Amino acid sequence: MPEQDRQERFLALLEDHRRILYKVARAYGRTDADRDDLVQETIAQLWRSFPRYDPRFRFSTWMYRIALNVAISFQRRESTRTQHLAAAGEEFLQVVGKGDVEPTEEVALLYQSIGRLDDLNKALAMLYLDGHSHAEIAEVLGISTTNVATRIGRLKERLRSELHPTPSRQTLEA
C-alpha cells in the first residue's frame, strides 16, 4: 500500500476509534499532562505497529491491546520515577477527556474506583464498560472467557461495595 494511502487509512481509523485513547488515558494517567503524554505515546506506537495490523481483525481490539500495553508501561515508568516523591495533595482521577461532556458525580466516583484497580482489572473494567463481549475482552487481555466472566463478577461486587457501601451494624444501632 502506498505511504499516502496507508497514512490516510490510519488517520481515518484513528479518528473513528479515538475515544479508546482517551478512555485508556483517563484510567491510567494521573494528571492532564500524563494523559496527554499517554495519548501521544499511544498514537506513536499505533503508527509504528500499523504495518503489522491485520485487517481481518477488528481495529478497536487491536487498538485497545496496544493502548493498554503502552498505558501499563507508562504507569510503571511513572511509578518508578515518582515513588520517592511525596504528593503535596493527591489529585483525583478526572473523568473528562477532550471533547467529552461533564461527567456526573457517580461517573467520576466510578472512574476514581477504577483508577485504584491493578492493571488487569482496570483494563477489564474499561473494556466491559465500553460494551465489549467476554470473548472480545479475552482476546484483548489474553485470558480465557471463563476467567473474564469470573473477574467481571468479582469486579462488579468490589465496585458495588465501594460505590454503595452498606451501612455497618454500628450505624444501624445508633
Written account of the structure:
- The chain is mainly α.
- The protein has a single domain (3-165), classed as Butyryl-CoA Dehydrogenase, subunit A, domain 3, CATH 1.20.140.
- Helix content is 70%, strand content 0%.
- The protein contains nine helices and no strands.
- It has helices spanning 3-16, 18-28, 32-49, 59-82, 105-115, 119-129, 134-141, 145-163, 169-173.
- Helix 2 (18-28) packs parallel to helix 4 (59-82), helix 4 (59-82) crosses helix 7 and helix 7 (134-141) packs across helix 8.
- The longest helix is centred in the middle third of the chain and has 24 residues, at 59-82.
- 22% of the residues are buried.
Give structural attributes.
globular, 9 helices, mainly alpha, Butyryl-CoA Dehydrogenase, subunit A, domain 3
| Distance from first to last alpha carbon | 72 Å
The gross shape turns out to be globular
CATH topology: Butyryl-CoA Dehydrogenase, subunit A, domain 3
Low-confidence stretches: 82-101
Helix % is 55-70%
CATH architecture: Up-down Bundle
By DSSP, the count of extended strands is 0
Mean pLDDT: 80
Number of domains: 1
State Rg. Answer: 18 Å
At the first level of CATH, the class is: Mainly Alpha
Task: Tell me the strand percentage band.
Answer: under 5%
Q: What order do the SSEs take from the amino end to the carboxyl end, as H and E?
A: HHHHHHHHH
> What profile does the largest beta sheet have?
none
Class by SSE composition: mainly alpha
Number of helices: 9
